[in-house]
What we know:
This protein is mostly helical. It contains 19 helices and no strands. The protein has helices at about 30-40, 45, 50-55, 60-85, 95-100, 105-140, 145-165, 165-190, 200-205, 215-225, 245-270, 275-280, 285-290, 295-330, 350-355, 355-365, 365-395, 410-455, 460-465. Helix 7 packs across helix 14. The longest helix has about 45 residues, at about 410-455.
Amino acid sequence: MVDISNTPGAIAGTTAAATPKRVALKRVLGPAHVWGLGVGIVLVGEFMGWNFAVGKGGALAALTACWLAGILYTCVAMIDSEVTSTVAAAGGQYAQAKHIIGPLAAFNVGLYLVMAYTMLEVSNAIVTGDLIQAFAANMGLAGEVDKRAFMVLVIVFLAWLNYRGVLATLTINYIITAIAFAAILTLFVAVNPLTPGTVVMHDQLLTGLPYGGLGILAAMHFGLWFYLGIEGTTQAAEEVRSPARSLPLGTLTGIMTLLIAATLTWYIGSGLMPWEYLGQAVTPLYDAARLTGSLPLEIFLFVGTLFATLASANGCINDASRAWFAMGRDRYMPVWFGAVHPKYHTPYRSVVFFVPIAILFAISTPLDQTITLSILSGLLGYTIMAIGVMMFRKKWPLGSITRGYVHPLHPLPAILLLGLCGITYVAVFLGYGTQLLAMMVFYIGASLWFVLHRYKYVRRGDQFTMPWPKPKGY
């Protein structure tokens, strides 16, 4: 196995003379794969997790949080589309931070990405196990299924799939994500949305704001789960055939898809279940299908939920491994992780490294806590992203470098993103203050480790792979 990179300046622990050949990540992906990666990671948020926002403030608070979070993630998608179509490198936001801000910010963003995607992968594995166990019980096989075995199986199988190649991995993601989205649409049609009161009972079930305006603030915590991970489209930037076209197209159509799916999901769930039950259900859309009394629909939603969790976990493994690979290649982490498989052209060591970590969290940590850890890491990354795009526009104004996409209304999206992130930090602190403080302590400790022990290995000149002029004012 040869440690390599496909960028001119990056090395992976050996000198050029000692390396007989270079193996690069393959550029094989198009816009549909980017859409499938982004939506595939996120769509599971429509099948589970979002409904915890209902428990925080009621159904109407959850709808408000859904739309506010939609604004937040629209800003994320717009900013990401501009910067990533310009900095088209593995690692996504990590690569952006190292080019625009500096090493310490890049190190932290890389950790945020890895933690966010690994905890999202763990959440998917937990829900897969719970779903299969619940379905078996509904089919008369109660006590015959051990959900932990399925958690482990999902993590190991999808890691193997990612080990073998990105094209097959994301092609499968595209297909099963489309089926999962079709399941949401089918359920929406089945509840007769044009004739309220026949199946959905919003008049009876919508009880206003049981906790008042504070409930809307608290609901923002899990409202992010409708969209968390759409920024993952950027992680495969080095494997996309035409980054300037495919990344903005795949990302922006992805957020549009999710805005529709999130609103439909809320409508279905809030019209079929009391908010007290909906707010703590593990598989709310599958439960909604059961309430319709249609066995074929129940089976289809079982398949849709299963496919959504698999697509999300699959994409998360892809994204976490790319971020970790990029950090290893740049010496932010040991260069051992910066290896590409000579046959499959995948960052195989980074894929395998997280398998035991994901398994340990899956079998030992409650779902709401893994979701919270993922959300907090994502929020920290969005905060840096908003700062980064303002620095990007200041250092390299429009016209100074070629951009694949230019997001409109700058700096309004960045300001909105910072404001909504601040609101969500408060929302998380209200319910999970201990986890928030623990995460901050972890990242501060990791930053100290990087500055004191790892920074000396970083070769800053080798990281800047973009042919840009010097920043304005330098």
